[in-house]
Design a protein that fits this description.
Layout (H helix, E strand, L loop, with lengths): L2 E8 L6 E6 L2 E7 H6 L7 E2 L1 H24 L6 H10 L4 H13 L5 H16 L3 H10 L4 H8 L4 H17 L6 H14 L4 H10 L6 H20 L4 H14 L4 H16 L1
Antiparallel strand pairs: 1-2, 1-4, 2-3
């Protein structure tokens, strides 16, 4: 059965969309681009196959516009946009057509997006390659593009950022022994996505020497806590051995530990 457009009315809430009436009854709505593309006007006769095509085209237009709105807030990957449209209820074919159009018009570009994400993660979080790779994977970036983008993150730049993280860890852990600080640096760098090779280089370059008075302050702080912990359960030789072991594991030199134990013995004798 042939359908005749008997009325076209602009929607009140959305001035860019038009209601189409066929044979005096509301049939569907289209945006202005679809209206112009199919030459829809009063008196035009439509077959059902044409109506189906118009509605399909309009569905693509709606998905495209939704994607543009999503992209207006920040750059997105193709995967993110696709998931957003699918979650909104658009069909797979419609979504693919919309994605193709977005790519063709330059609104979507996974290469540009990946490069921007790399720079952002380096600048704002000082992340290493492994952590950034995980971010790219989450965004649905193809493996070969991941490799290409991460290949621009060279050794020297990694060392620079990793050293900045290490220096921050040193400043934040002045109450720790060199061994404890080194462990902290290693934990931070590995968590940030740097390789063991980079971590090893950084640890080989940092200087973490302590002066005698610094050792005294450190062991007074940490040693007292350890002593109190074991003094409730142990005495004499057993207590001394347990405290020595705990302090040695924290990186205190043997002579500093011995001096601390001697001071504790003197305090007990008083």
């Amino acid at each position: 059965m042939l359908q005749v457009i008997t009325k076209i009315g602009r929607q009140k809430r959305n001035q860019e969309r038009y209601n189409i009436y066929l044979n005096e009854q509301y049939a569907f709505a289209v945006d202005e681009g679809t209206l112009i593309k199919f030459g829809l006007q009063k008196g035009k006769v439509l077959e059902q196959i044409e109506i189906d095509e118009i509605q399909y085209e309009d569905e693509i237009a709606k998905a495209f516009n939704k994607a543009l709105n999503f992209l207006s807030y920040q750059m997105r990957s193709e995967h993110e946009v696709k998931q957003k449209l699918l979650q909104a209820g658009h069909g797979e074919a419609v979504v693919q057509e919309s994605i193709h159009k977005l790519n063709r018009l330059g609104f979507l570009n996974d290469e540009s997006y990946s490069k921007a994400l790399l720079e952002t993660r380096k600048r704002t979080a000082k992340k290493g390659p492994a952590a950034i790779r995980q971010d790219l994977i989450k965004k649905g970036i193809a493996k070969d593009l991941q490799q290409e983008v991460l290949g621009t993150f060279g050794h020297d730049e990694q060392m620079k950022l990793a050293m900045e993280l290490a220096e921050k860890a040193i400043r934040s852990n002045t109450n720790k022994t060199p061994a404890q600080v080194k462990q902290k640096i290693q934990d931070v760098l590995l968590r940030k996505g740097y390789s063991y090779a980079i971590v090893s280089e950084i640890l080989g370059q940092v200087t973490l020497a302590r002066e005698e008075d610094e050792w005294s302050a450190l062991i007074e702080n940490q040693g007292d806590k350890i002593w109190r912990k074991y003094a409730n359960k142990l005495t004499g030789f057993d207590l001394h051995q347990k405290v020595k072991q705990a302090l040695y594991q924290k990186g205190f030199p043997k002579e500093v530990i011995a001096e601390f134990i001697e001071q504790k013995e003197q305090q007990q004798d008083e």
